[in-house]
Structures are given as structure tokens and as C-alpha cells.
Design goal:
Distance between the termini: 8 Å
Shape: globular
Number of strands: 13
Low-confidence stretches: none
Number of domains: 2
Strand content: 15-25%
Strand order of the largest sheet: 3-2-1-4-5-6-7
Length: about 375
């Protein structure tokens, strides 16, 4: 069975890994990686090199992003991605193509495949993020897909309602948590020395723009910067940089200025990679920002998360999430609350046993 896997960013590639590792070892499958989006962006760490290190037999690299994050450039990148993939789908045929999440470039690649009858399998459909235009792209991808592997029963119901059918819609849990029970972080001293983290408590931070509130992002970025500067007085800050969203550069510039103002208290990371990122989550005091990994994964590490603003609004949450507004004092007080709560001992609603094995079993059954 010939399988294609669409990956457009460091984030989705990390989520795919448990599934990719199993498919790669299974002679039933012929696997090809289709890398595009920020994987080929020098300003986002050129993470194609990390994919190449994982020794796949076939990697297709498709460059289609315009290096600007204003609305016109995002729309132009979407159109260019459609054009590039129109050529790609004309030449390359698959029995099934995996796609994941809600990125605009992922949506563009899928939309280009519709006239060619490409059979897509969508991971993480049915979720809601009211503060991001990704919400629209996610539903577009679901509507174009044949198979659906969702993270919770709630999302299975939503996908079934969206496509007006429960056929081929399966609850498998979040794929990124597939190996969480056996995960072993890097040795603490090795990890801290590798990234230059001082021997003290640190907070893991990731902020992205609110793409449904573009007029507010300048203010939000400033509130973020002021809050992080205040928090850095008592906790070291490790920041993973924003992805290629509309107005992402606003947050990048604010973060870079923060680094200049507090160079000894801030560490900036363009791309951790999954093992390093999970190790960072394991050793962090808590997570702060508005990224999906805080919602999906942090509970499995016993971490509280301060989720800021509306980007993740509407997404189902475990009980480790502290929601707050984009306002300096509120962010700081929420972080203080999370520190006082210390370790989260509740469940992660996104976890299911053997997610990758169950997806493979389903695909083989219906192939």
C-alpha cells in the first residue's frame, strides 16, 4: 500500500513520528514523505534537514511559502501551494495520503488534491480554535478527507456532524501521546548544558498570533513582552519561536527585544525537535502561551498550563489549563497561581492507548 504523508511544519512532523516509525518498519506499506511549508524556510530553522536525518526512502520537498506574514502574502502562499500541488498530484499517485491539523498550507495542498480524487486521512479533525483562522482550514481539510482519526469522542461527533456521516470516523486519541508512557527525557544535566539553561526552575513559553484578531496583535505582543519580563525576574524563560502565521513577525520582534533587554534570563529556540521539546516540557515548572501542545500534551507530563487569549478558545481542555486574558498583570498572576498548584495529577482527555497501532489496523482493514 503506497502511503504519502503531508508535513508542513516542525509541529505536525513531531506528532506524526510514532505513526511514521511504525509504517516505515511495516513491509505492507511503501512510505513517501511530502515536506513543504516552513520545513523549507530558513527563517524557521529549515527543518527539512531533520526529516532527512530520519532516513526515509523517499522525501519530496515542495517550496511554496512567501517570506512575509501579512494577509496578502499568506493568501498568495496559499495560492502558490495549490499550484505547486496541482503539478504534484498530477504526477504522484497514492493509495492514501495522511494530513494533519489545520495549517493554511496544509489546507492548500489538500484542496489541490480534490480534482485528482486523492484519498486523504485527516488527523486531529473536529477541534475548535475560535481565535485562529486555522479553525476554517481544519474543517476544509475534514470535508476533503475520506478517513478521520480524532483525538476525543467529542471531536468524532463534530466531524460526523460536519461531513454528515459517521463512516470512517474513528477516535484514536492524540498521536503525539502514543509513546508517552515509555518516554524517557534526556538526562537533566545533559539537557540543561546542551541548551545553556541555568540550574534553576524555568517556564516553557510559546506564543503565536491570534489570526482572528489581527488588529489586536500589536497590543497582545506588547502585553506578552511586559509579562514575560516581569516573570523572568523570578523564573528563567525558555521560548520556542512563533510559526508562519499572519503577523507572526510581530511576536518574533517583541520576543527578540525582550531577549535584548534580559539576555541572561531568556533563551530563544527556533526548533527543539520532539525529544528535546518533550524533555523541556518534562523539566519545566509550567507552560505559558497559546499553543496547542499546552492543551494536548502538557497534562501527560503533570504540568499546569497558562493559556493566554482566544487562539485555543473552544478546544476541549483537561483540568490542568488556566485560561487568562492578554493582559500583563493577569498573565503574571495566572503564572503565580500555576506555580502554587505545582504538579497536575489529573487525566489527559487526549490520551488513548496505542493510537498509532490502531490507525494502522484500521487502514489495513479498509485497504
Amino acid at each position: 500500500m503506497k502511503i504519502g504523508v503531508l508535513t508542513s511544519s516542525r509541529a505536525d512532523y513531531g506528532i506524526y513520528l510514532p505513526l511514521l516509525n511504525k509504517i516505515k518498519k511495516d513491509n505492507f506499506f511503501e512510505l513517501e514523505i511530502i515536506a513543504f511549508g516552513t520545513h523549507l524556510s530558513r527563517s524557521h530553522g529549515y527543518t527539512l534537514k531533520d526529516i532527512e536525518k530520519d532516513s526515509y526512502n523517499c522525501i519530496h520537498a515542495i517550496s511554496s511559502l512567501i517570506s512575509n506574514d501579512i494577509e496578502e502574502s499568506i493568501a498568495s502562499s496559499y495560492g502558490l501551494t495549490v499550484l505547486k500541488f496541482a503539478d504534484f498530484w498530477q504526477i504522484h499517485k497514492y493509495d492514501l495520503v495522511f494530513c494533519l491539523g489545520d495549517r493554511f498550507e496544509m489546507s492548500a495542498a489538500i484542496q489541490a488534491g480534490i480534482p485528482f480524487g486523492v484519498k486523504f486521512a485527516h488527523l486531529h479533525g473536529g477541534e475548535t480554535t475560535l481565535g485562529a483562522i486555522d479553525n476554517i482550514y481544519r474543517h476544509q481539510i475534514s470535508l476533503a478527507s475520506t478517513f478521520h482519526f480524532t483525538a476525543t469522542d467529542i471531536f468524532t461527533e463534530k466531524v460526523s456532524d460536519l461531513i454528515d456521516s459517521s463512516k470512517n470516523v474513528f477516535t484514536t486519541g492524540s498521536l503525539s501521546l502514543n509513546d508517552i508512557k515509555s518516554f524517557t527525557p534526556l538526562d537533566k544535566q545533559t539537557f540543561f548544558e546542551k541548551f545553556g539553561i541555568p540550574e534553576e526552575e524555568f517556564i516553557l513559553v510559546t506564543f503565536h498570533p491570534e489570526t482572528m484578531s489581527t488588529q489586536d496583535n500589536f497590543q497582545y505582543a506588547e502585553e506578552m513582552k511586559k509579562a514575560l519580563k516581569k516573570i523572568a525576574e523570578n523564573r528563567f524563560i525558555v521560548i520556542t519561536m512563533p510559526n508562519a502565521d499572519t503577523q507572526g513577525s510581530i511576536y518574533r520582534e517583541a520576543i527578540e527585544k525582550l531577549k535584548e533587554e534580559a539576555p541572561d534570563r531568556i533563551l530563544l529556540i527556533e526548533n527543539f525537535g520532539k525529544i528535546n521539546y518533550f524533555s523541556a516540557m518534562y523539566y519545566a515548572s509550567l507552560l505559558l502561551g497559546n499553543t496547542s501542545s499546552g492543551i494536548l500534551e502538557a497534562a501527560s507530563f503533570g504540568k499546569y498550563v497558562v493559556n493566554v487569549g482566544d487562539r485555543q478558545k473552544g478546544r476541549a481542555q483537561s483540568n490542568n489549563i488556566i485560561n487568562c486574558e492578554f493582559e500583563e498583570k493577569v498573565i503574571v498572576s495566572s503564572v503565580v497561581k500555576a506555580i502554587e498548584l505545582n504538579v497536575y495529577t489529573g487525566e489527559n482527555i487526549y490520551f488513548r492507548l496505542n493510537a498509532a497501532d490502531n490507525i494502522i489496523k484500521i487502514i489495513k482493514q479498509f485497504s
